[in-house]
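**Tokenised fold:**
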Amino acid sequence: MSAALRLGLRGGQRVGDGERPGDSTAVIARTLTSKSLDSLGMTMDQPVEALLFPYVTTPPRIALDLVDALAACPAVSRVVLFGSVAEDRHDGWSDVDALCAVEGEDGPWQAAAVLRHAMPMRWHGRFSSAAPPSGRHWLLGESVFHSVDLSYGSAEEIARRIAELPREFEVVTDVRLDRVGVASDGRPVVDVLSEDYDFTHALHAALKAMKAYLRAAGTWDQAAERMKALEAAARGLAHRPAGSDPDDVMNETRTLYYALMQERMRYGGDE
């Protein structure tokens, strides 16, 4: 691993002026980047640092934007956050997990269309067990680390999914919108909507492996193996829905991978 990572940047986050760090590791990351590395005669290129160490405030900001966007759809009755953002244990690499309750058969599609208008997307792919428009979303202008996993359903379906969340730890949910939804007929055309699972799953897995390495919770070999699988899945991606840009997502993921490889090799690999 790189000297910067060995010093403690794995698991740390960059913190901007006036921003409150999520935990002490964010302060450590900022201090090591600006002082300790200089004192040791080491430097980290600022664009690379920004790429590998996003702001800790970004995931909750995206979550709030998501809630605001969905609130503009009358069919939406409830938006629930769960996972690391809801539990206030997120870091700069965390994605956003959310559930959206809607009214009416066309409600999910109406909400998906409103969301894309407010938060343009580069790629969407399906979950293994939930049909579109639920799925994983990669937003335009945001790091590929910060995907949004969003499921739509009726109020009863969302309540059931909350009850079925993994129970290894106490499940914390954060209800950000709770109101009476209004059902209406009409299914809008939704761009950036894919039935793809293989590429989407491989992309998620590769980014998850890189996050694990940055958090000192995974190995470089695991990240390399997942990246190889992603390249194979990308070559097999045949359908590219209107408005989507999987090449852009892939190029950014490759840039992240090679930037991380460069930092790792610069300071002696994993020794």
User: Anything to note?
Assistant: Strands lie at 76-82, 96-102, 121-125, 135-139, 148-153, 173-178. The mean pLDDT is 84. The longest strand covers residues 76-82.
